[in-house]
Prior knowledge:
alpha+beta; two-stranded antiparallel sheet; 6 strands; globular
Amino acid sequence: MGSFDDQPARLDDAGFSAAVAAVTSAFGDPTRRQIYLFVRERPDGVTASEVAAKFALHSNVARHHLDKLTAGGHLEVSVLRANGSGAGRPSKRYRSTAQETGLPAPRRGDDLLISLLGEALARIPADQAESMAEAVGEDYGRRLAGQMSPGESHRSFRSALHAIADALTAHGFEAHAEARGGSLALIKESCPFFDTARQHPVICAVDRGMVRGMLAGLYGETVVATESSRAMGDDACVSIV
């Protein structure tokens, strides 16, 4: 999975921390987070009408979310006239500025590599494949934690989990943390591995390893248990920690 190995090297420690903070600071609610991910996956940009149709929103509400993300520096907007002339109502098109923040938008090449990784894991005995996938994810998660808070002492468990949710969102997941009984849960409603995971669920071990590795780096060694998985037909991927 080349994109995993490449990403930490693109930014210095301070730059990566600033980029993650910039991506997540404007997300006042889950809908805005979903809209950001939707725009980020479309290099040609989107209109408020397209966002409204996708998320069943009034066009004014969709425009409000897009303008908030633009004001925070997460999107850029261009204004076009109908037929390229000065007549007619102008149309705004919003595009992600992820390249400028240093967090790259998803690429088709990444999808191919994830698919090939799934095929490779499928050729290894199941127990070995899961162990290998989780180890790869954990190693990357530890490196990522070092980029997120270089030289920082371990933080509280709750703040570490929220930081992990933000970092996962910046990497293409749609993640948030919430309380569940006497535990905390990490909820991921979108996953860059999803298409491959439906065929090869073992790849979900990479995700679990990433969470465990980031927790180890930000808080301490912690047991991460999978409660549900979209790859297995559940509504969301839920990790209990």
